[in-house]
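Suppose you are handed a protein chain with no further information: no name, no annotation, nothing but its sequence. What can you learn? This example shows the usual starting point.
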Amino acid sequence: MFFCLNLPYRTKKNSKSMKTRFYLTGSAICMNVAYNGKRVRLGLGISVNPADFDTEKQTVKKSEPTYAEINRQLKKASVFVNEFYHTYLNSNGNTPPPPDVLVNAFNSGFLNKAARTVAPEPQQNQASIFQFADDFLKTGKLKPQRVRRFKNVLSVLKEFLTANVIKPTFEALTFDILESYKTYLFDKKLYNPNTAGFHVKIVKQILNEATRRKHNKNLDYQTGFTAPANNTDNVYLTEPELQTLLSIDLTGKPYLNNTRNLFLIGCYSGLRFSDFSQLKPENITTVEGTEFINIAQQKTGNKVTIPLHPVVKKLLSANNGKPPRPITNQRLNEYVKELCQIAGINTPVEVTKYKAQMRTKTTRQKWQLVTTHTARRSFATNAYLAGLPIDLISSILGHSNIQQTQTYLKLDAHEKAMQAAKHAFFNPSQMQIAK
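A reasonable first move is to predict its three-dimensional structure. Written in structure tokens, the prediction is:
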């Protein structure tokens, strides 16, 4: 169902034409802007009952309690786009604005000024996203840490819907609204691609669950609702660097000695901080003469069995078989940087940073980028370089699939080439090579 508003606007001669057209996606009113062979879809953040549209008069009927305010907002939206388009055209040599410029201008210039009293509360027959999510979280299927993350994502989603006067119903989450939500994550919350991607992932998980339970029939989210992942500048420590950490003299610095031992246990076990910092003697078992670490991961609850690396065994033996003294994640992050700086781990690393969707690059020394999670990445990458099959690495890390493990392998182009050079394809034993 469509209705159009074509408003006249004076421009310079030979200016390129532009038309706006409003249309419904589900119950949400959206605007299609057509110019120069392009079509731009804009979410208005306004939802109404489709029966309340009067297509002949091109207005919302009086049966909608807030019809007058909605009609004012529709007119304002069309005027805003016309004014921005022609102002840009006249200021840029009759060149139309790129679609992303128009979208960003509309989202920041119009949506943030829209009245916040347009959309009525959800009707009883319209399922509330947040009520469903609250019921889902109460099932106890998620661990407390995961619940906190879900609640944070839901809080930001509610903030977006409130700011843009959108009903918190599944029906309201149309393709255009979801696109506006992604823009909001970047331009208003200033999230980098990874953080925005995490929020999108959680929202999709909730929508999938709602669809599975037949609370949601709006499937717009299944097409194109993704956020670009940022290949972050996470580093790993090479085997020679780990050996340097193992050998440096830390006499008189017991806190750094404890830090080193904790961190290296993570580097040679693949455990997360939450697990290697809480390791207990009873987690070490012997099967047929071989020692293993057996532990249920705190984050996932998955049980993993990891062969005890000689370095881990040495560190435990030096402390009478007991793990190092546990410290907080924040404190270990602080100390491990100091430790790596003392060890001279100062290779220059180019770092990519995002502010909203703007990317900048700087150079930092490697020790500045080391965190507790570097231990887990170091284990995965060094084990892979040593020839341990990736499926075994995935099992040790407790990953559900190989793709997840591959993100932990921090190989540069040279390391990848060296790995390829070791493959049988480049070392034929019986292949006859033509002269």
